[in-house]
Amino acid sequence: MNDNPSRTPHQDHLRLIEDGVIDDILAMPLDELREELIEEKQDPDLLIKIARQKLIESQDLVARTSLKAGKQRAQAFKASSGKVLSLDLARKKFEEAQSGKSDGLMMAARKGRGLSANDEEALLEAMAELERLEGQEDNEE
Asked: What is the pTM of this model?
């Protein structure tokens, strides 16, 4: 039960009691809870408003934290992936290879015809992946 080494067994026991009280409150019918709050001279509508505001603040905090973590993961990915070839750049290199203007790249025709749209798309993706891998290789050296 004690997953935090700095907590004492007494704190664990108090935590269990607190959890039990919260569970009882959450399981209580709303009209009964409202009556109990009024008996204690508390405004149920005000408490509901405060609770909703705290929920909104918590959701905002979680969203900001998730966004920040996502941005950090994206930056780490970009930094680790090295040089990434965009599909537009791959398309330009592909067109150069088709026209024969490319340095060292040549395209073979299929049975005298050009590449199909699927062949072309697969080739573009392969060229982008090759460029990415070459970028990683450069980073490792």
From this structure: 0.40
